[in-house]
Amino acid sequence: AMRLLSEAHLRKGEIQLATDTLQQLVDQQPQDVDARQALGILLLRTGKQDQGLKLLDSVIANRPNSPIALQAKAEAMIGRRDWPQARAAIDQLSALPQQKPLGETLLGRFYQAQEKYTDAAQAYSRARQSAPTAIEPLTGLVQSYLAAKQPEQAVRAAEAAIASAPDSPFPRNLLGEVYAAQGKWAQAEEAY
To answer: pLDDT tens digits for the chain (192 residues)?
Structure first.
């Protein structure tokens, strides 16, 4: 019941009430791993990094195959620029069944945050091989190519996505953004 109440508070935008409700649930039922995970993620989102990470670490210790906790920890560590901890969480996540595309996407973010755009592009390319219709790997791939000053590669990636999903507007919009970033306004307008 308290978890549902917390979710209701979140839907209404009442973040503090949601946090307080989850904290009460964790205090009453410290063995509830799902509640600790939800509270840890909420604390991370509200800027309480140390508290959130402590809870997520306890979740991962009890449930090392939790993709949600591992993803949240990896994202937090990337934000903190704690590269060893981020990479460890990403590697642990990537080793889980069915999580390779998400792991490769996070690895792309990891490298982008370090301005290692070639490595980021490689990770996003691997993520696209596993999940060819996913938006984030395509976006990350194109952004990495642009950041690496390889606009022709960005165009090719967007065009390949258009070819594989001709009915999807997203790759076309992305191609338009690539052309706009290069100041090629007529081509950008055509792509949009």
So the answer is: 788 888 888 889 888 999 999 999 999 999 999 999 999 999 999 999 999 999 999 999 999 999 999 999 999 999 999 999 999 999 999 999 899 999 999 999 999 999 999 999 999 999 999 888 889 999 999 999 999 999 999 999 999 999 988 889 999 999 999 999 999 999 999 888
Query: Hey, what are 67's tokens?
Result: 């993709």
b/e map 4-29, b = 16+ CB within 10 Å? eebeebbeeeeeeebbebbbebbeee
Amino acid at 78: I
Q: Which among 185, 128, 116, 186 has a CA at the least distance from the CA of 156?
A: 128
149 contacts 138 by C-beta, under 8 angstroms: no
Distance, in Å, from the CA atom of 176 to the CA atom of 171, rounded to the nearest integer, reads 9
Q: What sections of 30-99 are H helices per DSSP?
A: 33-45, 49-62, 67-80, 83-94
